[in-house]
User: Which sequence fits this backbone?
């Protein structure tokens, strides 16, 4: 089940309604932390799909848009940023 809000998600998990995936700082500051258990997973490799959606014609912003996409892709460890058709 997808939930909106960490408090709701961790509350459901604390009540036995499944598993949750949250950053450790949010877990540590949660009022539900004493009812939860951290499960260490050694082979978990999350994948992020990120799209940069823009108008076809952006005029003089074209270079800035391409640079932004390349920097974000590089920071996220993408091998090569995807190019628009």
Assistant:
């Amino acid at each position: 089940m997808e939930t909106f809000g960490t408090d709701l998600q961790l509350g459901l998990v604390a009540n036995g309604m499944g598993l949750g995936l949250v950053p450790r700082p949010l877990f540590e500051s949660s009022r539900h932390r004493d009812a939860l258990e951290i499960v260490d997973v050694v082979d978990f490799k999350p994948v992020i799909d990120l799209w940069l959606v823009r108008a076809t014609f952006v005029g003089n912003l074209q270079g800035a848009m391409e640079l932004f996409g390349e920097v974000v892709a590089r920071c996220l460890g993408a091998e090569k940023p995807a190019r628009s058709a």
